[in-house]
């Protein structure tokens, strides 16, 4: 639901709004996103950014956000008083670092997981709760895959196809050139025979 519509419904006074519609507007006012892709890949022993942003139509007050690993293990817990203040840390895993900012254009609550290990592979959920929207809650999940080394894309098949197509085009051009030469020789021969016969 667009923010304008959500804000309009949310701003209706209780007597004028139907309870169901009011709850519907509140539920869809808060949105959480981890970006266009829901999966990320990290090299073992590297650091990886886990992105998360949130949007709210009617603003926020004492907003609480948490990051969970595989839905149950808390790895970061923070609180934001309002748009004019940056988040304050409540608790975090020592390997997790907050890298977002909520005083700028985007409400960015991204984190970085340092020294990634194979056991870190799994689901990371960014959860947001906004008391100003009657404790509306929303979350988004990103899946982390940890690899020993980044695998280069094998372009062998593509190169073979390009080579074959290029070869066929080359043969076609060669055939057209030979045909033109042969036709030119035949024409010259015929013209020579015609002149000799006169």
Pick out its properties.
single chain, 2 domains, alpha+beta, Immunoglobulin-like, 198 residues, 3 helices
Could you describe the 3D structure shown?
By secondary structure, the protein is α+β, with helices and mostly antiparallel strands. It folds into 2 domains: 116 residues, Immunoglobulin-like; 44 residues. It is built from 3 helices and 12 strands. The strands form 3 sheets. It has a 6-stranded mixed sheet. The protein has a 3-stranded antiparallel sheet with strand order 1-4-9. Strands 3-10-8 form a 3-stranded antiparallel sheet, with no helix packed on it. α1 crosses α2. About 11% of the residues have low confidence.
Secondary structure elements and pairings:
Blueprint: H1 3-10, H2 19-29, E1 30-33, E2 39-43, E3 48-50, E4 53-56, E5 63-69, E6 73-80, E7 88-92, E8 96-98, E9 107-108, E10 111-113, E11 122-130, E12 136-147, H3 156-197
Helix pairs in contact: 1-2
CATH class of the largest domain: Mainly Beta
Shape: elongated
Compute the average pLDDT: 83
CATH architecture of the largest domain: Sandwich
- The largest beta-sheet arranges its strands as 2-12-11-5-6-7
**Share in helix:** 25-40%
**Secondary structural class:** alpha+beta
SSE succession: HHEEEEEEEEEEEEH
Number of strands: 12
| Tally of separate helices | 3
Précis, in short:
It is found in: Membrane. The protein is of the alpha+beta class and 198 residues long.
